[in-house]
Amino acid sequence: MSELPKCPKCSSEFTYEDGALYICPECSHEWAKDGAAEEGTDKKVEVRDAVGNVLNDGDTVTVIKDLKVKGSSSVVKVGTKVKNIRLVDGDHDIDCKIDGIGAMQLKSEFVKKV
Predict the structure, then answer these.
(1) β strands within 19-85, DSSP E
(2) Distance between CA atoms of 26 and 28, rounded to whole angstroms?
(3) Which of 5, 24, 74, 83 is a plausible cystine mate for 69, CB 3.0–4.6 Å?
(4) What is the CATH topology of the domain spanning 60-113?
(5) Are 76 and 69 in contact (CB under 8 A)?
(6) Which residues pair with 30 in a beta bridge?
(7) What does the pLDDT read at residue 54?
């Protein structure tokens, strides 16, 4: 029987194969058998606001357009300050908490860095 590699994320010995992937049952990390996918995960996408400033985790931004909150009658008004943003992958690339509304995701094209 062949030796399976340890998980590169948590160093668990209990990895298993699933098709072209290795999977760690302890931390749910998946990586390609050839290791090519692991090299690509280190690259970070640069997220920019509406005027071209680079955004980072923990930044404070201001909303530049009234935004309707999906599934609610609430509106995020122009000029609303959002503190301590977190950048995530996807179409809505900012994860944040807005006072009076709660946790939500925003698109970087509708905010400006303070």
Answers:
(1) 21-23, 30-32, 61-63, 67-68, 75-76, 81-82
(2) 6
(3) 74
(4) SH3 type barrels. (2.30.30)
(5) yes
(6) 23
(7) 95
Spatial contact of 38 and 31, defined as CB atoms under 8 Å apart? yes
Cα(103)–Cα(93) distance, integer angstroms: 13
Domains of the chain, residue spans? 1-40, 60-113
Please write the tens of the pLDDT for every residue from 44-103: 678 999 999 999 999 999 999 999 999 999 999 999 999 999 999 889 999 999 999 999
- Give the domain 1-40 fold: N-terminal domain of TfIIb (2.20.25)
Can you tell me the distance from the alpha carbon of 10 to that of 69, in angstroms, rounded to the nearest whole number? 38
